[in-house]
């Protein structure tokens, strides 16, 4: 009986692995360290950098080239939905809370390549990475 349970467990594991592979949306949504995000920004893909802080926070300093879309605006989801879903994005907020929450929305809206900066601009600055005036 032990061999039967083991065989069933193995077959179930294989089936679940195959199903997981088939259900992949083909999207690449990830959270990375500020250093890894910096490398993505500097790469040939030329991602759109999205700062989802408030306009007042945005004015305190940004990752170079960042575009501001306020997470707290009533039409935040509509603004995101209007963006090119196939483009490459790097998204950040102040500490990673809002950008972390937004990753679910990016996925729901069908974005295929979104990278979140872990720890937000606070972690970016703590790692000694550059912040510029908007």
Give structural notes.
With 134 residues, the chain is of the alpha/beta class. The chain has one domain (25-126): Rhodanese-like domain (Oxidized Rhodanese, domain 1), CATH 3.40.250.10. 44% of the residues lie in helices and 16% in strands. The chain contains 6 helices and 5 strands; from the N terminus they run αβαβαβαβαβα. It has helices at residues 2-22, 34-41, 55-58, 76-81, 97-109, 120-126; strands spanning 28-32, 48-51, 67-68, 88-92, 113-117. Strands 1-5-4-2-3 form a 5-stranded parallel β-sheet. The chain is globular and about 35 Å long. It starts with a helix and ends in an 8-residue tail after the last helix. The model is unreliable at 4-24 (pLDDT under 50).
Briefly say what this structure is.
The chain is of the alpha/beta class and 134 residues long. It has helices spanning 2-22, 34-41, 55-58, 76-81, 97-109, 120-126, and strands spanning 28-32, 48-51, 67-68, 88-92, 113-117. It has a single domain (25-126), classed as Oxidized Rhodanese, domain 1, CATH 3.40.250.
